[in-house]
Amino acid sequence: MSDNAKSCFPPVVNAQTRLLILGSLPGDASLQAAQYYAHPRNQFWRLLGELLGCELVALDYPSRLAALQQHGIGLWDVVAQARRQGSLDAAIRGISPNDLPALCASLPALRAVAFNGSTAATIGRKQLAAMATLPALFDLPSSSPAYTLSYSAKLAQWQALRAVLA
């Protein structure tokens, strides 16, 4: 069973991070590429590019991360380690959560946390409930191709993040 052990990437944040976007746990394509949201059908980079008014999909990975950080956006996952066959959130077992309160407390400019998908929201909200002062929380539809909501319907809900980025 240990061959199904998966771990998250380090957080991509800095002192200017105003919005922290949290996924659940990287899928197989992301783990193989060692990049957040690497599956070619994942809509994450397209959604954020539309919000930011820049073509993130056309950029190489380091440039994508740099563009996010220039806009005050950080990335991480709610799960530090777990077992999972494949990439579906429903298959995640034996979760060790990340210390979200400690990360949030270390970000002086943090105004909001957005959860990319319901699994991230369920786990992340539990972790953040212990915080004395909570940033604004947004539950977003997953950018994963496994979540079959239309792109336009996803984008309509992701637009709520514009207020934080303004």
Automatic annotation (TrEMBL):
Keyword Hydrolase set for record: yes
SMART domains linked: UDG, UreE_C
Domain named Uracil-DNA glycosylase-like: residues: 10-162
InterPro entries on file: Hypoxan-DNA_Glyclase, Uracil-DNA_glycosylase-like, Uracil-DNA_glycosylase-like_sf
CDD domains named in the record: UDG-F6_HDG
Top enzyme category: hydrolase
Keyword Hydrolase: yes
E.C. number: 3.2.2.15
One GO MF term: DNA-deoxyinosine glycosylase activity
Xref: Pfam families: UDG
Keywords: Glycosidase, Hydrolase
Superkingdom as given in the UniProt entry: Bacteria
Full protein name: DNA-deoxyinosine glycosylase
Taxonomic source organism: Aquitalea aquatica
Organism taxonomic ancestry: Bacteria, Pseudomonadati, Pseudomonadota, Betaproteobacteria, Neisseriales
